[in-house]
Amino acid sequence: MRALLMIAATAGFAATASPSFAQTDMSRIPYYPWCSLWWEQDNEHRSCGFTSYAQCMVSARLEGGMCFENI
User: Over its length of 71 residues, how does the chain's per-residue pLDDT go in tens digits?
Assistant: First the structure.
């Protein structure tokens, strides 16, 4: 009986101590809310790796492009 209680207690602790897959997965995804868009000849280029509008505009101005919200 005592061994059964130990197994149940261990299983209960393991279930509450480990985060679910969704919690773990979402906490590791970086959020980049701004994208830049610019053109070279007939090619369109996008970069969606900016954390702020100001950061995006620095890149966009160098390329002669624009920034937009990454939805």
Answer: 565 445 655 555 455 555 555 555 667 888 999 999 999 888 999 999 999 999 999 999 988 899 999 98
Cut 0.90: pTM above it: no
Reduced to 3 states (helix: H, G, I; strand: E, B; else coil), residue 9 is helix
CA nearest neighbour of 66 among 42, 26, 43, 39: 39
* Tokens found for residue 4: 């059964």
Domain ranges of the chain: 2-69
Is the Cα torsion angle 29, 35, 36, 41 positive or negative in sign? positive
Cα(34)–Cα(41) distance, rounded to whole angstroms?
23
The rounded distance, in Å, linking the Cα atoms of 48 and 59 is: 11
